[in-house]
TrEMBL record, chain A:
The keyword Hydrolase does not apply. This is Tricarboxylate transporter. Signal peptide: none annotated. It comes from the Bacteria. InterPro entries: DUF112_TM (IPR002823). Residues 20-438 form the DUF112 domain. The chain crosses the membrane at residues 20-40, 60-82, 109-135, 147-163, 170-188, 200-220, 227-245, 251-280, 319-343, 355-375, 387-408, 414-443, 464-487. Keywords: Membrane, Transmembrane, Transmembrane helix.
UniProtKB/TrEMBL annotation, chain B:
Pfam families: TctB. Keywords: Membrane, Transmembrane, Transmembrane helix. Residues 32-170 form the DUF1468 domain. The chain crosses the membrane at residues 27-46, 66-86, 107-131, 143-165. This is Tripartite tricarboxylate transporter TctB family protein. The keyword Transmembrane applies. InterPro entries: DUF1468. It comes from the Bacteria.
Length: 505, 180
C-alpha cells in the first residue's frame, strides 16, 4: 500500500491553481489537436513541447500528458460526427460510431466513446500505479548488460511483431540509431559522422526530427486528400449521458476485454492502432448477433475506444519504469524528460518522487476533468472543423518552426525539420514505418552506452549478455522475437501437417 | 436513415481530381529511396571505419557500433532495392497523381520560402507573410480575413513566446526597428 500513500502525495503536489490551469490548457489544446486533420497526438506534443522549457518538470509533464489525453479524446469526435478518423487509432470507432450518428444517435455514440476512453485509461493508470514502482525497483538491480538486453528486446520486438515489411522496419530502425550517433561520442569524446560540419557537431536533435517527421509531413499528406466534409450536429444532454451510463454494466465483458488488450499492446510496442482494431474484432467475434456490427451498435464504439485509450496510457508504463517508451508519443515525452534535466529510467522513482507521482496523479485527474470537458464542449470543438484548412495549415507550419528553433536556438534546425518533413512524407507513402525510427533516435545513445559499458566491463566478451539467468533470458527472448515470423511459420507448418494427419484418419 | 440533421458542411473547391494521371509509381520511388539509403550507409560506414571500428584495449572504438549499424542499414536497403526491382513490373501503384502533386507543392513551396524568409527577415515577419499569402492565394479566402488572421496569429505567437515565456525566435530588421 506504499503506492497508495505516494499517490496521495502526488495529488497534493498537483492540487495547486497553477497546475490545474495548465491541465485545462493542456486538455483544450489536446482536444483541438485531436480534432484537426493533419495534427495528432505525437505532433501536438512535439510542437507544444517548447512552451514547457521554462516550466518546472512537474508542471511541464502535466501539461504535455494532458495534451496527449486531450488528443485521445478528440480523435473520437471527428470519427463519429464526420466519419473522418482524426487519429489512426480512431478508425475502428468510425465503423459503428458514424452509423449511429446517421441514425440520429450521435450524442449517444459520443458519450459511449468518451466514457469508454475514460474506463480504458483508468484501468491502465491503475496498472501503472501498482506495477510501475515494482518494475522500477526490480530494474534498480540492472547493470549495463541488462539494460542493453532490454533495449535489444524493444528493437527486436518491433522487427518481429510489426506488421510492416521486415526490411523496412530494419531500415527505419538502423537509420534512427545511426542518426542518433552523429556528433560527439559520449564515451571517448571523438567526433563521429560530422564530416567537418560545425552544425552536425551538436548531433541531430530528436525533437527536431519528430516535428518534421510528424508535423510537416502530415500537412503534406493531408493536402493530398479531398478535404470537404459533411458532419452531424451534436449536443449532449445529461439525460443521454445518464442513459448510456445506466447501460454500462451490461457491457462489462467488452470493456474488460478491451482494457486488457489495450494494456497488453500498450506495454509491448503493439500500439493503440492495433489495440483498437483487435478490441473491435474480438467484440464482434464474441457477440451473439455479430452481423449487426457496423450498423450502429454501441458495443462497436465501446470496444475500440476502450482499447485505444488503455493502450495509449499504458504505453507510459515502460517509459516511467525502465526509460523505454511504448509508443511514439511516449518517446516524445521521454525526449521532454531529458530536456528538463531528468534522467529517465528506474532511478526516477527514487530520485524524483514528486515528479513521478505528480504525473501519475495527473493521469487520474486529467482523465476525469477531460471526460467532463469533452462531454460539455463537443459542439464547440466540432465547429473547429469549419475553419478552412488553408488557414490551419500555415499556422501549423509556423508552430512547427517555432518548436524546432526553440529547442537549441539554431536556424539549422528549421532546415533540418523541413528535411525530415520530406523524409517523413516519402517514408509514409512507401510504407517505411516511422515509430521504430523515432524510438531508435531517442534510445540510440543510451543503447550504445549500455553496450559499450558492458563490453568494457567484460573485456570484449559478448558472452556477458548470457552471463546470468536474467540477462540471458532477456537476450534470448529478444532473439526469439526477432525471428518470431520464422518460428511462427515453422510452428504453423508443423501444426498444419499435424492437423491434416488427424483429419485424414 | 435521416440525413436532415447535417449541420457542418465544409467544401473543398480545389480538391485533387480522382482521375488525375499518375506522375510516378511507388516502385520507382522505392528504388530511388533504397539507392539513397545505400549511398548514405556506405558514406557513414566509411566514415566510421576511418574513425576506428575495431576493438582496442579499452573496448570497442567509437566507430564500432555505428559501423555495424551502417552495415545493417546497407543490407536492409539492398534487400529493399532488390525486392522493389523484382516486383517493379508486377505492381504499379501510384505514388502521387498530378493533381495531388500540385497540391503538395502548393504547401511545400510556401513552406520552403517561409524558411528562407525566416533566415533573412525573422520568424514573425515570415509567419505573417506565410499565413496571409497562403490563405489568400491557395485558400482563396478574402484578403481582409487573411491579413487579419495572419496578424492576430503572429501577434499571439509573439506575446506567448517572446514576452510571456521568454523563448527567443530569429528576428530581423522589423523587430530591431521596434526595439525588441
Amino acid at each position: 500500500m506504499e503506492a497508495f500513500g505516494l499517490l496521495l502525495h502526488g495529488f497534493a503536489v498537483l492540487l495547486t491553481w497553477k497546475t490545474l490551469v495548465l491541465m485545462m490548457v493542456g486538455l483544450v489544446l489536446g482536444i483541438f489537436v485531436g480534432v484537426l486533420p493533419g495534427l495528432g497526438g505525437p505532433n501536438g506534443v512535439a510542437i507544444l513541447l517548447p512552451l514547457t522549457f521554462t516550466m518546472d518538470p512537474t508542471s511541464a509533464i502535466v501539461m504535455l500528458s494532458c495534451i496527449y489525453w486531450g488528443a485521445l479524446f478528440g480523435g473520437a469526435i471527428t470519427s463519429i460526427l464526420f466519419n473522418i478518423p482524426g487519429e489512426a487509432w480512431s478508425v475502428a470507432t468510425t465503423f459503428d460510431g458514424y452509423p449511429m450518428a446517421q441514425q440520429g444517435r450521435a450524442a449517444e455514440a459520443l458519450t459511449a466513446a468518451f466514457t469508454s476512453s475514460f474506463i480504458g485509461s483508468l484501468v491502465a493508470v491503475l496498472l501503472i500505479t501498482f506495477l510501475a514502482p515494482m518494475i522500477s525497483s526490480f530494474a534498480l538491480k540492472f547493470g549495463p548488460p541488462e539494460f542493453f538486453a532490454v533495449y535489444l528486446l524493444t528493437f527486436c520486438s518491433f522487427v518481429g511483431l510489426g506488421r510492416e515489411a521486415k526490411h523496412k522496419t530494419v531500415i527505419s530502425m538502423s537509420l534512427g540509431l545511426l542518426l542518433a550517433g552523429i556528433g560527439m561520442d559520449t564515451v571517448s569524446g571523438n567526433l563521429r559522422m560530422t564530416f567537418g560540419s560545425p552544425e552536425l557537431l551538436r548531433g541531430i536533435n530528436f525533437l527536431v526530427a519528430v516535428i518534421g517527421l510528424f508535423g510537416i509531413s502530415e500537412i503534406l499528406l493531408t493536402m493530398e486528400e479531398r478535404l470537404a466534409l459533411r458532419g452531424h450536429a451534436a449536443g449532449i444532454s445529461l439525460r443521454v449521458v445518464l442513459g448510456v451510463w445506466k447501460d454500462l454494466p451490461k457491457y462489462w465483458v467488452t470493456l474488460l476485454r478491451s482494457s486488457f488488450i489495450g494494456c497488453w499492446l500498450g506495454i509491448t510496442p503493439g500500439g493503440a492502432i492495433a489495440a483498437s482494431f483487435m478490441g473491435y474484432n474480438l467484440a464482434k467475434r464474441f457477440a451473439k448477433e455479430s452481423e449487426s456490427f457496423g450498423k450502429g451498435r454501441i458495443e462497436g464504439v465501446f470496444a475500440p475506444e476502450t482499447a485505444a485509450h488503455a493502450s495509449g496510457t499504458s504505453a507510459l508504463l515502460p517509459m516511467l519504469a525502465l526509460g523505454i517508451p511504448g509508443s511514439g508519443t511516449a518517446a516524445i515525452l521521454l525526449g521532454g524528460l531529458m530536456v528538463w534535466g531528468l534522467n529517465p529510467g528506474p532511478l526516477l522513482f527514487v530520485e524524483h518522487k514528486d515528479f513521478v507521482w505528480g504525473l501519475i496523479a495527473s493521469m487520474y485527474l486529467g482523465n476525469v476533468v477531460g471526460l467532463v470537458l469533452v462531454l460539455t464542449t463537443v459542439p464547440i470543438f466540432a465547429s473547429i472543423l469549419r475553419v478552412p484548412f488553408a488557414a490551419v495549415a500555415p499556422m501549423i507550419v509556423v508552430s512547427c518552426a517555432i518548436g524546432a528553433y526553440a529547442i537549441q536556438n539554431a536556424m539549422f534546425d528549421i532546415w533540418l525539420m523541413l528535411g525530415f518533413g520530406i523524409v517523413g512524407y516519402v517514408f509514409k507513402k512507401i510504407g517505411i514505418p516511422l515509430a521504430p525510427f523515432t524510438l531508435a533516435l531517442v534510445l540510440g545513445n543510451r543503447a550504445e552506452d549500455a553496450f559499450r559499458l558492458s563490453m568494457i566491463g567484460s573485456g570484449g566478451n559478448l558472452g556477458v549478455f548470457w552471463s546470468n539467468g536474467l540477462v540471458g533470458s532477456i537476450t534470448t527472448l529478444a532473439f526469439l522475437l526477432l525471428f518470431w515470423p520464422v518460428i511462427d511459420g515453422l510452428l504453423a507448418r508443423v501444426g498444419v501437417t499435424h492437423r491434416t494427419r488427424t483429419t485424414s484418419h | 436513415m435521416s440525413q436532415t440533421d447535417i449541420e457542418i458542411v465544409v467544401e473543398d473547391p480545389t480538391a485533387p481530381e480522382d482521375d488525375s494521371p499518375s506522375v510516378v509509381s511507388s516502385g520507382t520511388i522505392e528504388i530511388v529511396v533504397c539507392l539513397l539509403l545505400l549511398a548514405l550507409a556506405i558514406t557513414l560506414g566509411y566514415d566510421n571505419w576511418r574513425t576506428g571500428a575495431s576493438w582496442d584495449a579499452t573496448g570497442p572504438e567509437p566507430g564500432y557500433f555505428p559501423f555495424y549499424l551502417s552495415v545493417i542499414l546497407g543490407g536492409g536497403s539492398l534487400y529493399g532495392l532488390i525486392a522493389a526491382l523484382v516486383s517493379y513490373r508486377a505492381a504499379r501503384e501510384t505514388f502521387v497523381t498530378r493533381a495531388q502533386g500540385r497540391r503538395v507543392m502548393a504547401v511545400f513551396v510556401p513552406t520552403l520560402l517561409f524558411c528562407l524568409v525566416t533566415q533573412v527577415l525573422g520568424l514573425y515577419v515570415a509567419s505573417f507573410l506565410l499565413i496571409s499569402g497562403f490563405m489568400r492565394l491557395v485558400g482563396r479566402i478574402a484578403l481582409w480575413k487573411s491579413l487579419l488572421t495572419a496578424f492576430v496569429f503572429t501577434a499571439i505567437m509573439f506575446v506567448t513566446f517572446d514576452i510571456a515565456f521568454d523563448v527567443i525566435m530569429p528576428k530581423g530588421p522589423l523587430e530591431a526597428a521596434l526595439g525588441r
